[in-house]
Write a structure and sequence with these properties.
- By secondary structure, this protein is α+β, with helices and mostly antiparallel strands.
- It has one domain.
- Helices cover 16% and strands 37% of the residues.
- Strands 4, 6, 7, 8, 9, 10 and 11 form a seven-stranded mixed β-sheet that branches. Strands 1-5 form a two-stranded antiparallel sheet. Strands 2-3 form a two-stranded antiparallel sheet.
- The chain is globular and about 60 Å long.
- This is Phage protein.
Length: 199
């Protein structure tokens, strides 16, 4: 079961969202661990992996963020595959025309190890429709996906789901759920060939 997948017994935890002095939002009972090193407010989610049913398509935010920050495999939580060409990422994209790709890619999908990548392309319905394997030499946090709040009285109100850059002032109004990473200096690789070389 993918490490970042949410289980049915893992719930978003209630927290009263309040306006923050100087702008933005916070929790009425905010704790130090509710924000990351960039000052981003994160949604509270219980941690009960393996309890209930896996909810494919739903991501457990704290595990996703941990996998991104530590370059862990999103499936097994072990170290992502790394060689001289870079860290292995597997994206559900059409890799047939890399010439049309931008110079960098934004993603919420953490990297993978080679064994999990090989299994995933056969097991995941989304990846069976098309995928691209990348070796990434440079990557860094670029933003967050989450719920945007807007000012209102007496309390801020949820507005919409958004992706916001870390340097955008609007990020102060987001309750984050996933970390977005910018992949740069990457090359497209053949996953089957990489697996064969690893033997």
């Amino acid at each position: 079961m993918p490490y970042i997948t949410r289980w049915s017994e893992e719930r978003s935890l209630d927290a009263l969202v309040v306006p923050r002095h100087g702008g933005g939002i916070g929790y009425a009972d905010e704790q130090v661990h509710d924000r990351d090193g960039n000052g981003i407010l994160w949604g509270r989610v219980s941690h009960r992996p393996g309890k209930g049913r896996p909810e494919f398509g739903k991501v457990h935010g704290p595990r996703q963020r941990r996998a991104m920050r530590r370059a862990l495999c999103q499936i097994c939580a072990g170290p992502a595959d790394r060689n001289r060409q870079g860290v292995l990422w597997l994206l559900g994209e059409d890799g047939n025309d890399p010439e049309t790709w931008p110079t960098d890619v934004l993603t919420c999908h953490p990297p993978v190890c080679l064994p999990c990548a090989t299994k995933s392309v056969g097991a995941c319905p989304h990846l069976r429709e098309g995928y691209v394997a990348l070796r990434v030499r440079r990557f860094a946090p670029a933003g967050v996906r989450g719920v945007l709040y807007r000012p209102a009285l007496p309390l801020p109100v949820m507005s919409e789901a958004v992706g916001v850059a870390l340097d955008d002032p609007m990020v102060r109004w987001v309750r984050a759920g996933q970390l977005i990473v910018r992949l740069a200096a990457f090359s497209v690789v053949d996953l089957a060939e990489a697996a064969a070389q690893r033997g």
